[in-house]
Every structure is written in structure tokens, then in C-alpha cells.
Predict the structure.
Amino acid sequence: DTIGRFARALGDSNPLYSDPVYAKEGIYGGIVAPPLLECCICSTFIGGRMPRVRGISVYDGGTKWERFVPIRPGDFFTAQTEYLGVGEVKREEAGSRLLLRSHEIRLTNQTGALVSRLTARSLISCASPEKTGDVGSAVKKPAPESIAGKKHETTGSVIGKNVGSVPHLFSTRPRYSQEQLEAVGRNLDAQLRGDFRRGSDPRYWEDVQAGEALPEEVVGPYDESDGSALMAAIGAANAFATKWAAVRYRKGSGLIDPETGARRHPIDRHMSDAAARAQGLPRAVVSGVHSQALLAKLAGDWMGDAGFLCSLDCRCRRPLYFGDLSTQRGYVTGKSRNEKTGDCYVNLRLEGVRQDGVVHTEAEAVVRLPSR
């Protein structure tokens, strides 16, 4: 069930993750999980205990996913977490600070095999006292990104060019032309047909060349259904009493619903524009792990069923907001062969790009491919 829910949360129709008859004929002899299913086993977003004061926010900085063996139905896991430290990224003259905190998570399965090693990174924004607002009110909203006020164009994208100005995109959900939506629909239709998916036809290492581009995959406009699918897959949300257990101790630093006056869980910024604005964001923001998993899907479709995603080192550079489109794209940067084992590897550069041309997530990937 977890494998199926996670695949659906990515819009991934690969039968390797759902059809036992199809999967039995493949290299693994059965169903395996999509890359980055690890986020359904343990959280890579480690908020930790913070001082109960206003002005501190934690964001996903991106995770390095190192994978060693496939995950199969019926596997169970032990997770070990090690704190790696925290460092200052930058300090503003007004006293605001940005910190980067890292943890390592090791997952072993029921046989004792190391399945994955994850280096999870969190960005901690610490606003100066004069910039924080009253509890329950939105923090003074600065320009959400250094690019505010500029216009951007996408290049080589099916989405199109000049999709309005950045302030418009941030304050409200963008309105797209019928031509743009039809282009997105054609790309989604192609994904459903498997046009971009190598599938059971092996992609051999010898046939890959540096500079080769991966087919672009488009998602969006991102909405509540997309966010709900992810939350159901990763089990990130709670309700009623268990939700209350998480929010009742946040007095003085918690999120207050602007309409009901009740406390809300900070995770609601990934589902509600109002909740996001109460935390100083322009509108609901996409979970960082969703953007990372979409890059893993792109790599998985390109490499085929016989390939294996060995590592994906992601960095969350800019927010992806509800209402945004995202184009996942990439290209081959190099290839190598391990002379001792004979294993053949390909290096990829991947990125998720918003409709305004801004890269919101980027990654370097290493995939293992079969050799002739």
C-alpha cells in the first residue's frame, strides 16, 4: 500500500511499482519501490526542539539520498539518526540569521543490510525581534526572494515564456492561458502513456553520451489534491487528539488560524494559503521532499527498470508554491566504470524549474546502468 500511495503521489504509472505480473519478468523478479520511498519510512525534515519564541522558522534545505539495495514489499526497517552539526549560512545587518543544520539517517532492513544513508539538511531562519509580528498575525512580509520585481523566461520548456511578473506570481496563484494549460496536459498525457519512460527496454551504459538531455516532465498547477496525495503517502499529518498533542505546547510561538482563532499545526503551510500567510509566506508552499521525489522520478523514467538510482544530492533553492507549474529536466554530465566490480555509472544534473524560469530544486544524481 505504501509503495502504491507513494507512486500515485508522484503521478508515476510505472507498472514496476504496481503490477506483479509485469514486475516478475524484470531484473528484480517482483515489485520494488520507487526511488525516495525512504521519505515514507522516516522523516528527513527534522525540526527538532526550538526556543518557543516568535521569528524562528525551519525549512527543508534538501537531502542527499544514498541508496544501496532496492526496497521490496514486506521489508521492515530500523532507522538510526546522528546529529552532524549546525553552521551559519549568513547574517543580516539587522540581526536576522540563517543557519544550516544536518543529520544523518541510516536505514537497515530485516536482513541487516544497509538500505539507504540520508544526509538531511534543514534551513533555520531566525528573524530579528523587530521583524517579528504578534502571535496569530502574519510576519511583515519582505520580498520572498531576491528575484522579486524581475521577470523571467523559461527556455526549452513546454510551459511557455513570460508568465507574468514575479510579484503577481507570489501574491496570488497564477492564471495560465489555455495554450499553456493544453501544453501541460499534453505532457501529462505523455507521462501517462509512458512516452518518457524507458521501462523494460534496458538503457545500456555504452549508448549514453555526456550532454545528452533527459525528456522534460511537467507537473501542475500544483494544488490541494497533489499536496494531499503526498501527505497520505508519507504519513506527515495528524488529526484531532494526536494533532492537539503536537500543537498544545506551542503557546507563544504557534500558528493561530486567522478565522477561527484556534491553533494550527505548522505543517498546514503545505496545504493552506491562509496558514502559510500566517507564517510569513505569500501562499501555501510545496513540501521540499515532493520536489526532490519528482527529480528522482525523472531519473527513474530515463534509466529504465534495469537501472538503479544510487544517489541523489538535492538542494532546495527557492520555494515552489501552490498554483505553480514545475518542469523537471536534466542532462548527462559524465559516465564511469568501476574497474574492480565492472559496475557502470552515469552522472546526471537535474533541476526543477518554476513557470517563471526560477530553479526551485536542483540535484546531482548517480545512476547505475547495465552494460552490453
Observations:
- The domain at 2-369 is CATH 3.10.129.10 (Thiol Ester Dehydrase; Chain A).
